[in-house]
Design brief:
- This protein is an alpha/beta fold.
- The protein folds into 2 domains: 81 residues, Arc Repressor Mutant, subunit A (Orthogonal Bundle), CATH 1.10.10; 207 residues, D-Maltodextrin-Binding Protein, domain 2, CATH 3.40.190.290.
- Helix content is 45%, strand content 22%.
- The protein contains 12 helices and 11 strands.
- Strands 3, 4, 5, 6, 7, 8, 9, 10 and 11 form a 9-stranded mixed beta sheet that branches.
- Helix 1 packs across helix 4.
- The longest helix has 25 residues.
- It is elongated.
- This is LysR family transcriptional regulator.
- It comes from Paracidobacterium acidisoli.
- Keywords: DNA-binding, Transcription, Transcription regulation.
- InterPro entries: LysR_HTH_N, LysR_subst-bd, WH-like_DNA-bd_sf, WH_DNA-bd_sf.
- Pfam families: HTH_1 (PF00126), LysR_substrate (PF03466).
């Protein structure tokens, strides 16, 4: 039995497919099947049922899974312990967040970290909120950055950033001359909304609370697209102030507060509570946390 067999076993169990596990591990499906057969022969029991095109655990496979996870964690701890013999943190950290967070929130955090810990490789993963949470829970990434609240008890949550949402309009829009805009007026103008996610939930709740039916012009997949469509004059929308700092500076967009309404956006760094964090990870956590406290 070796670590590669255990890694293959866990990948098949996670994906419930030999072919997808082969793609993930960059191997052929026969090679994956051979590893599982060899592992089953050594254990003396079948680990998966492969009937009807489905891959499911046998009783032995279900029993074996936590032991396989523990063995791979021990292997990871060995590598970490040896790496920690060096005074300076090294290795690789993976951080998942959505596109806007990577573009407008994390660059100064990454820059400060790399200035202090140049030997650590930062692997950047672009994913939406639910996929980021899933990746952290599945140990696919070390950290995620997502909007609050996060209610999963398996995750540690460290707030790192707060800003406000504002109504964003092009300079020629009738709202551009106002200092504030009433929510009722915003609801009557062509509105660009995110198609899903935490911010859409927040806006839906806002409209329900005030018994308003917004005039939705378009639903878009990302904050960056929403900003581009506002620039093109296709409507107005709500965006974090951080996302439009440059456009406000050069005058291509204007952010206007909503009258009597404050919509805050809180971002947090999340990671598994049961995960042993390397020195590099601890350093990144500290820098990100300090960045949030300094705002």
């Amino acid at each position: 039995m070796d670590f590669e067999q255990l890694r293959t076993f866990l990948e098949v169990s996670r994906l419930k497919s030999f072919s997808r596990a082969a793609q993930k591990l960059l191997r052929t499906q026969p090679a994956i099947s051979a590893q599982i057969r060899s592992l089953e022969q050594e254990i003396g029991a079948r680990l998966f049922d492969r009937e009807g095109g489905k891959v499911t655990f046998t009783a032995a496979g279900r029993l074996f899974e936590p032991f396989a996870e523990h063995c791979l964690e021990c292997q990871s701890h060995i590598h970490l312990a040896i790496a920690e013999l060096e005074r300076s943190p090294r290795g690789e950290l993976s951080i998942s967040a959505n596109e806007a967070t990577h573009l407008y929130v994390l660059p100064p955090v990454f820059a400060q970290f790399k200035m202090q810990y140049s030997r650590v490789i930062l692997s950047i993963v672009r994913s939406e909120r639910l996929r980021t949470l899933e990746a952290v829970l599945n140990r696919e990434v070390d950290f995620g950055v997502v909007s609050l609240p996060v209610r999963d008890s398996r995750l540690a949550v460290e707030p790192i950033h707060r800003d406000d949402l504002a109504l964003v309009v092009p300079p020629g829009h009738p709202f551009a001359s106002r200092t504030t805009v009433r929510l009722q007026d915003m609801a009557r103008t062509p509105l660009l909304l995110p198609s899903h996610g935490r911010r859409r939930e927040q806006l839906n709740e806002l409209f329900r609370t005030h018994e308003l039916s917004p005039r939705v012009a378009m639903e878009v997949e990302s904050s960056e697209l929403l900003k581009r469509y506002i620039l093109a004059g296709l409507g107005v929308g709500l965006l974090p102030r951080t996302n439009i700092t440059e456009e406000e500076r050069i005058g291509t967009l204007k952010a206007i507060p909503l009258e009597g309404v404050r919509l805050a956006r809180d971002l947090a760094l999340v990671y598994r509570k049961d995960k042993q964090i390397s020195r590099a990870g601890q350093a990144f956590l500290e820098i990100a946390s300090q960045a949030g406290k300094s705002k």
